[in-house]
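Predict structure. Chain length: 313.
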Amino acid sequence: MNKETTSHPVRHIRIGPEQEGQKILVFLESLFQGQVPRSAIQRLIRTGQVRLDGGRVKPFDRVRAGQNLRVPPVKMQAASTQDPVGRVPILHADADLFVIDKPRGIPVHPGSGWNDSIIGRLRSMFPDDSFAPVPVHRLDRDTSGLLLVARSFSFLRHMQTLWQEHLVGKHYLCWCRNASALQGTAILEDRLRLTGGPGKEKMASGQGQVCQMTATVLRTTPRNHGLILVRLLTGRKHQIRAQLGLRDHPIVGDAKYGDRPWPHGLLLHSCCLVWENRAFISRPPWPEPWQVTSEDWTLAMKIAHPISAGQHP
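Prediction complete.
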């Protein structure tokens, strides 16, 4: 059933300090709270109906404190009276960030065929936030675990700088196949390029971006599966999945990179994020026979974050 629509008159919004640095498109998406499609917002910007200090803007121009933003009349869908699709598991929240323990199967952003998303849920849970939540890094829809989401532009820029300078420790746990060929800790480096259209993207070897990571074998099973601790040294789309798949060690459940679909989904989990004097950890919720035991977890944390394992770095 179609929702009723309402129309708002022209609005003039003065940008506050807490909104400084947001992209025009993101600012308007937050303002409309999901009641105006992104395509409609982009059309308003493209046709010059959105003005910043009287001038035309582009979707990714950033606003500054003290500027005046003109928002034209726009038809908005009536807000749903239903509860949000779901809530987000939040491990930590403060004025600058959310630390999310992301379930698998939920995309970070809404996309083709997917209305539900982590960002959409956060907007529903915190509708009065003046800064629209922005993920600091990416996690695939079927990857679970730690996700950092910025609540302020200053924190977002700070974390982006740390990310670019490789000052954030990013560790993942996964189960892969054909583990007997893996021993100890290996440094993996490839050049990967993105192929395929929307919804069919896949990383392939070739003259693309340099991708680097380390892979440490924590445990192997009689069926030649291996529990692997990965440290990302770069952060490319599908990087862990592609680099292991290229070496015939596909992650369990990863049909895109060499395995078959699995009832429990993709066994890849963001388990530890460390930067400056902060650290967050998340143990995978996998069932038997893929459960991460206490011994597995202690060993993983001794490598990824010694303090959490009761040791000094």
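Summary: The chain has a mean pLDDT of 87.
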